[in-house]
Each structure stands twice: as structure tokens, then as C-alpha cells.
From TrEMBL:
Name by which UniProt lists this protein: Alcohol dehydrogenase iron-containing
Stored SUPFAM superfamilies: Dehydroquinate synthase-like
Domain Alcohol dehydrogenase iron-type/glycerol dehydrogenase GldA: 8-175
Obligatory cofactor(s): Fe cation
Coiled-coil ranges per UniProt: none
Length: 401
């Protein structure tokens, strides 16, 4: 199998890194920048510091602070139009995943002159996005080093993914100062998402020694630092979380994502389930399902999840991996089941059927007729073990409260 490993984003990490944003903008030949954020982040002192650094570097600054929980096609299309109208030549995103996806989508539509909806799918646009600098304020999505943007098409109740080599961010700034204002219950959500990125990259059938090495170290660093970063003010642990989240996305950007993301996507679109809850609750099941066909990967992943495999059979080791994930969830206040409000039991089969096109189908998912699939239809997914609709249904049922 031929594999590629591509990571063109410059990563600037460490305490004080945020102060380099102006210098980076200048190096990227930006002169007028759109700073994308949300109402909470834009009120933080570090946001003001970033704006000051951009102004000091000679940037004219326009702002869009209206991002919400999801990156919305309507926001992206409007901001893309604005960028062209106002002659803006760079995008700086300061926020979590939805902020970075909104800014990335804006940078894509601004140069490609078509709506975001038509840019979803794999490589569906042919002009380089505007230069982008990403400043993540949660340790989670990894969008700062990802070519992909995940957007919500509000009209069709769909979550869609779009991107290609032309939409990698140019620079990512990882500075734990941006995590300081984050309440514990908020911080846990993206951190668990990041953990799933590392694991799903590691159990992908299209990974390589390169992606395995990065994914495994991302899981190890994330698992080791999560409790301290969420339950205390440990700045070192938070910086480790930021770096681990970034690494997980470097891995999954190349090895792609697996069953947790494929099964969560329709629940996010049709049931409004938050992304980290969807993928995080599924994670212990996803680990067990895939490790069953990856005997050589059981021990390394177990050790990354702080399981001591000595004296355990392979099946016991796999079970211990899932148990350690659940123990972590208990300690950081993350759920390990879907409530009936989140995923009504009567809609589980439908959600399993709607997962069939997979994460990377783009707008083609909009016309997919889920009623045509049967128990043995396989879900499009690069994970090591193929999963049928029936198996997906069982997995979802196991995750119900
Ligand atoms: Fe994710």
C-alpha cells in the first residue's frame, strides 16, 4: 500500500507563543486580516493581546465574533463575500473547533467564489484558500493543523466535511494562556474528541509507521495530562493537552478517522448531539471493536492508556483499555452513555443506516436514501475492521443509558 504523510502547517508552541501572531501574519504577507472568534473568547484578555500584536505588526483588523456551537454555512458564505468586498487577505481564527472551521471555510469560499455547501467533500475546490493563522482556545478539535472544515448545513440538518491540500492552515499557535478561561466541564469535551482522533488514527487501515508513531504519542500524552489539566490549574498539563490534540490531528489528517466519527455524524446532524459526546461515548466500543483484528497493536495502545498488560490475556487487555477510558471519563466529568434525550432508542437503527456514506462523502450524503440499506451493508470507513449496519446498531444500543 502506498501512503503519504503531509503536514505543511507551521506549529509554534509554548508559553508566550501568542505574541508571535503579528510576526507570523507579516511573514504570510497579510495586510488586512479578518479575526474570527466567538462572543466569549472575544471578551478575554488574551484576545485583546492578539489584536494588539496584529495592530503592532501593521495589520488592519476586521472582526467576526458571532460564531456559535457549529460552523454554519450561512456565516461562512456571508464572511467569504465580506472578505472579497473589503479586500481582506488573511484570516486569523481565535477559538475552538467551530471558530476555526468557520474561519477556514471563509478562507476557502473567499478564493473559490462558490458557497461552502459546494466546497464540501474531498478536494471539491481548486484555488488555495486565503492564508490562515489558527489560535486554538480548546485542546481538542485539532482543526488548527487540519485541511478539513466541518460545517453545519442548517437547511438540510446535515453536518458536512470539506477540504483538501489547498485548505491547510499556514500556521498554528499553541499557547496554554488561551485555555485559562475555560470552565472544567467545557474543557473536557474537546479533550475527549482529541483522544478519539488519536485512537481512530491508530486503528485505521490506511495508516503508516509515521501516523502510528504520532497517534500513539498523542494518545499517551493526552491520557497522561488530561486529569491534571481539567481538574487543576496545571499550566504544563494544559500545554501538553494542546500539543497532544495537535498531534492527534496530524495523525488523523493522514490516517483519517474511524467508526466513532462515522457513527456520530448523523446523530450530530439529525439529533443535534454535540460532536465530542457522540465520538467520546462511542470510543471504548470503537477501541474494542477494532483491536479485535489488530493483535500487534493491542499492547502499545494499552500502554499508552496506562494499562499494565502483564498477566492479562489479549481480550482482558482490550477490556482494560475500555475500562481505563471510562475511568478517565468519571474523573473528568464526561458521560459514558447517551441519554434518551440525546439519542432516542427508537431512532438508533435509522442513525446506523444514515452512517453508511461515512465521514468523507460530503454533499453526496444529502441525497443518500438510508432506507435502501440492509443489516449487512458496510459503513464507509477507513478503520481496520469493517462494520455493518447491524453491528453499528448494536454498538449504538450498547451506548444507551
Ligand atoms: Fe472529532
Amino acid at each position: 500500500m502506498i501512503t503519504t504523510f503531509y503536514m505543511p502547517t507551521r506549529i509554534v508552541a509554548g508559553a508566550g507563543a501568542l505574541a508571535t501572531v503579528g510576526m507570523l501574519a507579516r511573514e504570510l504577507k497579510m495586510t488586512r486580516v479578518l479575526v474570527v472568534s466567538d462572543p466569549v473568547i472575544s471578551a478575554q484578555p488574551f484576545h485583546a493581546d492578539a489584536l494588539a500584536a496584529l495592530a503592532e505588526a501593521g495589520m488592519a483588523v476586521a472582526r467576526f465574533d458571532e460564531c456559535g456551537i457549529d460552523a454554519r454555512c450561512s456565516h461562512i458564505d456571508a464572511q467569504g463575500e465580506r472578505v472579497r468586498r473589503e479586500g481582506i487577505d488573511g484570516v486569523v481564527c481565535i477559538g475552538g473547533g467551530s471558530v476555526m472551521c468557520t474561519g477556514k471555510g471563509t478562507a476557502i469560499v473567499a478564493t473559490n467564489h462558490k458557497p461552502m455547501r459546494d466546497c464540501t467533500g474531498v478536494g471539491r475546490f481548486d484555488r488555495r484558500a486565503l492564508p490562515m493563522i489558527m489560535v486554538p482556545t480548546t485542546a481538542g478539535s485539532g482543526s488548527e493543523v487540519s485541511q478539513w472544515t466541518i460545517v453545519k448545513d442548517e437547511e438540510r440538518h446535515l453536518k458536512l466535511l470539506g477540504g483538501g491540500p489547498l485548505s491547510f492552515p499556514d500556521a498554528a499557535i499553541l499557547d496554554a494562556v488561551t485555555l485559562r478561561s475555560l470552565p472544567m466541564h467545557v474543557a473536557a469535551l474537546p479533550a475527549v474528541d482529541a483522544l478519539t482522533h488519536g485512537v481512530e488514527a491508530y486503528v485505521s487501515a490506511i495508516g503508516s509507521a509515521l501516523t502510528d508513531a504520532v497517534a500513539l504519542e498523542a494518545v499517551r500524552l493526552q491520557y497522561r495530562s488530561l486529569r491534571a489539566s481539567i481538574n487543576s490549574d496545571d499550566e504544563r498539563a494544559r500545554q501538553d493537552n494542546l500539543v497532544a490534540s495537535c498531534m492527534a490531528n496530524v495523525a488523523c489528517g493522514n490516517a483519517r478517522l474511524g467508526h466513532g466519527h462515522a457513527l456520530s455524524l448523523p446523530m450530530e446532524g439529525h439529533l443535534d448531539l454535540p460532536h465530542p459526546i457522540g465520538v467520546g461515548v462511542l470510543l471504548p466500543q470503537v477501541i474494542a471493536f477494532n483491536l479485535a483484528v489488530l493483535p500487534d497493536k493491542v499492547r502499545p495502545l494499552a500502554e499508552a492508556l496506562e494499562v499494565d498488560p502483564a498477566g492479562l490475556t489479549r481480550d482482558e487487555t482490550i477490556a482494560a483499555c475500555a475500562a481505563n477510558i471510562r475511568a478517565l471519563y468519571a474523573d473528568i466529568g464526561f458521560p459514558d452513555r447517551f441519554t434518551p434525550d440525546q439519542v432516542p432508542p427508537g431512532r438508533v437503527r435509522e442513525m446506523a443506516e444514515r452512517a453508511v456514506p461515512g465521514l468523507y462523502a460530503g454533499i453526496a450524503a444529502a441525497t443518500f436514501d438510508h432506507t435502501t440499506v440492509g443489516d449487512r451493508t458496510v459503513i464507509a470507513c477507513p478503520s481496520a475492521r469493517k462494520m455493518t449496519v447491524r453491528q453499528a446498531q448494536t454498538m449504538l444500543e450498547t451506548c444507551l443509558a
